[in-house]
């Protein structure tokens, strides 16, 4: 058994071992001793980085939200100066893509309520959601949203729809799809959302006052 790692490698090895154990068991109920064995280190080694299993799971959840933010930011910026509805469509695709490519992170991120989560997890979760909120707020400033809808409510509606699709994908409730097939599913979902929340293009005005995002 390996008893040590070069600086910076042990923490990553433990996180990867935790993900591998979850992939094998379908739950994060391993002990720290089991984690050490899976990582190939001494039974005390995990405590160099994590006080207990919950601290390790928090680190994985925080990592997941950071990765999600990076994925959605990349998608949002990838289409140039499109209107807000096109940006929201790209965010949705990025969200489902992240879930399909990081299913173990995805399950863990949403397995516990944010209330009571560590400050690091809560901050990372809020930062990932802020990407969508900012795009929706820009849509309102363009006069694209239906009257009476608040930024946060629309963002929550969009998130709920795409999260449902992502959960179905991760849970194996839908047939596996190619990258193109996944994009088409998100496009269909986005069409339903956009036509419900957005004003017809011919009615759109410019320079609407920002909505209360509370």
What would you note in describing this structure?
The protein is mainly alpha-helical. It has two domains: 1-50, Orthogonal Bundle (Arc Repressor Mutant, subunit A); 54-203, Tetracycline Repressor, domain 2 (Orthogonal Bundle), CATH 1.10.357. Helices cover 64% and strands 0% of the residues. α3 runs parallel beside α6, α4 (84-101) packs antiparallel against α6 (119-141) and α4 (84-101) runs parallel beside α7 (151-170). It starts with 8 loop residues before the first helix and ends in a 17-residue tail after the last helix. The model is unreliable at 207-214 (pLDDT under 50).
Short description, anyone?
This protein has 8 helices and no strands. The chain has helices at residues 9-25, 32-39, 53-77, 84-101, 103-109, 119-141, 151-170, 179-197.
């Amino acid at each position: 058994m390996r008893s040590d790692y070069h600086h910076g490698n042990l923490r990553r090895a433990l996180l990867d071992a935790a993900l591998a154990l979850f992939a094998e068991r379908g739950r994060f109920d391993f002990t720290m001793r089991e984690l050490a064995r899976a990582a190939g280190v001494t039974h005390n080694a995990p405590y160099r980085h994590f006080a207990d299993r919950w601290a390790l799971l928090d680190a994985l959840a925080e990592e997941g939200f950071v990765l999600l933010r990076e994925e959605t930011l990349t998608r949002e910026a990838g289409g140039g100066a499109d209107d807000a509805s096109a940006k929201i469509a790209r965010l949705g695709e990025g969200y489902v893509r992240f879930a399909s490519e990081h299913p173990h992170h995805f399950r863990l991120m949403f397995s516990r309520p944010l209330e009571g989560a560590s400050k690091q997890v809560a901050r990372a979760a809020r930062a990932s959601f802020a990407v969508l909120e900012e795009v929706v707020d820009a849509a309102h400033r363009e006069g694209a949203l239906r009257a009476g809808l608040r930024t946060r409510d629309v963002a929550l509606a969009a998130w709920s729809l795409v999260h449902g699709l992502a959960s179905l994908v991760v849970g194996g409730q839908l047939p596996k799809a190619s990258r193109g097939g996944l994009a088409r599913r998100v496009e269909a979902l986005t069409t339903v959302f956009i036509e419900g929340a957005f004003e017809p293009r011919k009615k759109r005005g410019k320079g609407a006052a920002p909505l209360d995002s509370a």
